[in-house]
Amino acid sequence: MSDKKIVINSYKDLPGAPVSMGKMSINKTASWRNLEPYYEEKAPPCNLSCPAGTDIVEFIHLVAKGRYQEGWELILKTNPFPGICGRVCPHPCESECNRGDFGGPLNVHRLERFLADANYEKMPRPQYLEDKKSQSIGVVGSGPAGLSCAYHLARRGYSVTVYESLPEPGGMMRVGIPDYRLPKEVLKHEIDHILSYGVKLECDCRIGEDVTFADLREKHDAVFIATGFHLSRKLGAEGQDLADVIPGIEVLRKIAFKENIGIGDRVVVVGGGNTAMDAARSVLRMGSKPRVVYRRSRDEMPAIAEEIEDLLAEGIEIDFLTQPVKVHGDATGKVIKMECVRMALGEPDDSGRRRPVPQEGSNFEIEADMVITAIGETPDLTYLTDDVKAKSWAVLVDEYGRTNVPDVFAGGDSATGDGTVTHAVGHGRQTAIAIDAYLKGETPPECEKIERTLHGESTHQVTLDEINLNYFPLVDRIEPIGAPIPERVKNFEEIYSGLTEEQALEEAQRCFSCGTCPECDNCMVFCPDAAVSRDPDGGYKINYDFCKGCGICVAECPRNAISIKLL
């Protein structure tokens, strides 16, 4: 063998070699594939848990892109109250968020409020879904269920009249939620948007007195019952009828309408729900020293967790496992004290919560000059005609909000008792769709069922272990700072400011966008066979002639928007 070195200085010095000029596309390298990846957008847990059916993942995506008006208008397709729900919704979506154990859940309700606040000065032009129709619908109650139903029916071209017994619209949103949680100007702004669709409003109109329910049915093609929880349950203890034993709903209503109300110096609030929390915090701002008693433990309290935390932070004490047994009055009937008994938790009752059991010999007294009761509320359904089936606390309906009478529907607290604004909004929307179907002569299978907002056909809920955390930094949840406690308890000004634009963008970018494809290109970049390409119509397409089913695209998809199947 020669020791002579061969030096190649450029490609021109290379020896000749045969080169094929033909294409290799005829070589179908994937012919032996036994696994096949495919794009399948799955259900984000937040979307599945939203009672209003809002596409949460998509509006957060629009926030992250700085497209605030589009995000706001997207919410308005399902929920006419983003500014309200962004403040008072108990946000079950956040409890389900996969970020919960990875920096804290997305601050969904604050982002919803951000979009509403960012577009506050705008009044969107009415966006009708269908042409005007000759039929009309009467809605009883202008709370969240009634107004949501009216909104969605008006968008479908129907003539809608809302009947409200109070002097102003809003129902429990107006009289049951104090200004420090929901400013009245926000409520007015979003109701005005609904009225811009031509919805008629008749306030100071009590059904059963000013007009009968039978008259409504005669006047309209369909009637929607959306009477809120405006009646308080009795305390169920001796002395419950003393003059200074007042329902929490009545206290909040008088405060909302700025009516004169004599608040005592030592007020005991009985209950563990949102009405009890709001009543106690309201009288605190009026100079009283309130104290809350609740017959179960904190774990069983039905109030929104943040409201309980704020109440305790404001210095209001809660006597847990405490049950009133007697309200004592003096010779003039004035409340002077309340006798209570200590409780212990026994077996679960029908609500699923452990039943409180009185402890013998544990009675004690609390000094008080006023007792506010907030142990549960019911709707006033005394105006209904006998043919409409109802219990004492609810109208009987099916999953579409239909009663046993074809032209009568019901939703919100008057039918389900869920007790939140967002649930009521969802019920109103669902029943509007059912009423539309009824007036068109359609049957339930043809009627859209509001259960979830999906991005594809899959109802598979994405879990944290299906998210590729390598692509997401561990970033903590952003929370706005509330007003200092010494200042907030002096007035009814809104406690929490909204997110700044910088905070909103940062928070939105924390979103995993579970199960959805934001077109990050990972699948295309990592495919070893270049079998993935962009689809001109959006998304990607896979060339199965060359895809070997290696599954790299599935593994590298950050959000589990690609699945793989055995052939």
Kindly describe this structure.
The protein folds into 3 domains: 49-124 and 466-505, Orthogonal Bundle (Fumarate Reductase Iron-sulfur Protein, Chain B, domain 2); 136-230 and 379-446, FAD/NAD(P)-binding domain (3-Layer(bba) Sandwich), CATH 3.50.50.60; 231-378, 3-Layer(bba) Sandwich (FAD/NAD(P)-binding domain). The protein is 27% helix and 16% strand. The protein has 18 helices and 20 strands. It has a 5-stranded parallel beta sheet, sandwiched between helices. It has a 5-stranded parallel beta sheet with strand order 7-15-8-9-10. A hairpin with a 5-residue loop joins strand 18 (532-534) and strand 19. The two termini are 55 Å apart. The mean pLDDT is 92.
Can you describe this structure in just a few lines?
It contains 18 helices and 20 strands. It is of the alpha/beta class and 567 residues long.
Features:
elongated, 18 helices, FAD/NAD(P)-binding domain, single chain, five-stranded parallel sheet, 567 residues, Fumarate Reductase Iron-sulfur Protein, Chain B, domain 2, alpha/beta
